[in-house]
């Protein structure tokens, strides 16, 4: 697990910025697209890989192990209602497997099931995803750290990214901090300086 800053993306984002974002130090990208059919999602993932892998960035696919395997991605990120981590690990022993966690106990369970890292959050309130539970707060990051590399997510900007890194997170994952910023590339550089 080397990526420290994951940028989540969908087909609606300005994917022409991906090479520049990777060059700026965004070393992980997660393809999170719920609206595409399987073939189109594989094609999207391949285009992301082509844009950022030559620059050394990692690419994981949200929810879909089949797409990650078909596209040749580096890994898959699984939520609580997705394929079980243990099954993903058995089916794809060479892939990076991440698991969404909201407590230390969940991080321990993910580690025991074979996860490589835990996506931990939401740390702060966010509008990037509907139906999320209440924000966990920075203290929850410290409480859950030390079992697996934690990738904190939820309402993070450069200042908050530095805060969660200091609290014990291995890295951060962002959406709005880049895609809803008027200067996505400048925002990415700030994130890298704060949390890289």
UniProtKB/TrEMBL annotation:
A GO cellular component annotation here is: cytoplasm
What does the record say about how the cofactor binds?
A: Binds 1 Mg(2+) ion per subunit.
Pathway in which the depicted protein is active: Cofactor biosynthesis; thiamine diphosphate biosynthesis; thiamine phosphate from 4-amino-2-methyl-5-diphosphomethylpyrimidine and 4-methyl-5-(2-phosphoethyl)-thiazole: step 1/1
What is this enzyme's class at the first EC digit?
transferase
Molecular-function annotations in GO: magnesium ion binding; thiamine-phosphate diphosphorylase activity
Keyword Ribonucleoprotein annotated: no
Its domain of life? Bacteria
The record lists Mg(2+) as bound by 63, 82
The residues that hold 4-amino-2-methyl-5-(diphosphooxymethyl)pyrimidine are 30-34, 62, 100, 129
Keyword annotations: Magnesium, Metal-binding, Thiamine biosynthesis, Transferase
What does the record give as the reaction this protein catalyses? 2-[(2R,5Z)-2-carboxy-4-methylthiazol-5(2H)-ylidene]ethyl phosphate + 4-amino-2-methyl-5-(diphosphooxymethyl)pyrimidine + 2 H(+) = thiamine phosphate + CO2 + diphosphate; 2-(2-carboxy-4-methylthiazol-5-yl)ethyl phosphate + 4-amino-2-methyl-5-(diphosphooxymethyl)pyrimidine + 2 H(+) = thiamine phosphate + CO2 + diphosphate; 4-methyl-5-(2-phosphooxyethyl)-thiazole + 4-amino-2-methyl-5-(diphosphooxymethyl)pyrimidine + H(+) = thiamine phosphate + diphosphate
**What are the GO BP annotations of this UniProt entry?**
thiamine biosynthetic process; thiamine diphosphate biosynthetic process
Residues annotated as binding 2-[(2R,5Z)-2-carboxy-4-methylthiazol-5(2H)-ylidene]ethyl phosphate: 126-128, 155
Its EC number is: 2.5.1.3
Q: Which cofactor does it need?
A: Mg(2+)
**What InterPro entries does the annotation carry?**
Aldolase_TIM, ThiamineP_synth_sf, ThiamineP_synth_TenI, TMP_synthase
Q: Which Pfam families match?
A: TMP-TENI
What is this protein's function?
Answer: Condenses 4-methyl-5-(beta-hydroxyethyl)thiazole monophosphate (THZ-P) and 2-methyl-4-amino-5-hydroxymethyl pyrimidine pyrophosphate (HMP-PP) to form thiamine monophosphate (TMP).
Protein family per UniProt: Belongs to the thiamine-phosphate synthase family.
Protein name according to UniProt: Thiamine-phosphate synthase
- Which species does the entry assign this protein to? Nocardioides simplex (Arthrobacter simplex)
Question: Encoded by which gene?
Answer: thiE
